[in-house]
Amino acid sequence: MSSTTMTIRVSTDTKEKLDRLAADTRRSRSFLAAEAVSAYVARELAIVEGIGEGLEDVRNGRTVSHEEAMSELASAIDTAERDRS
Questions:
Q1: pLDDT digits (tens, 9 = 90+) for 44-72
Q2: Three-state SS for 25?
Q3: What's the CA gap between 30 and 27, in Å, rounded?
Q4: Mean pLDDT of 17-42
Q5: pLDDT confidence of residue 70
Q6: Which residues contact 48 (CB under 8 A, 6 or more apart)?
Q7: pLDDT value at position 71?
Q8: Could you tell me which of 17, 25, 29, 84 has the fewest CB atoms within 10 Å of its CB?
Q9: pTM
Q10: What are the residue ranges spanned by the domains of the chain?
Q11: How far apart are CA 67 and CA 69, in angstroms?
């Protein structure tokens, strides 16, 4: 995988914590920062994409009413409670 260099600003506190983590894990600050950014980007992108899919569902009429959703949830809860008994 190719890589590129970025420069970021972090608080002194964050840098000190990153230094400590790097020392404790025997990893470089750069490696840990790259891992953290990658995880953040993946998580946030999944959220943004999910919101986009939801908005597309609304635009295309793929929705259910609140009452229907609550009815289905109540039914699922009732079934789960019966199965536990």
A1: 999 999 999 999 999 999 999 999 999 99
A2: helix
A3: 8
A4: 98
A5: 98
A6: none
A7: 98
A8: 84
A9: 0.73
A10: 12-84
A11: 5
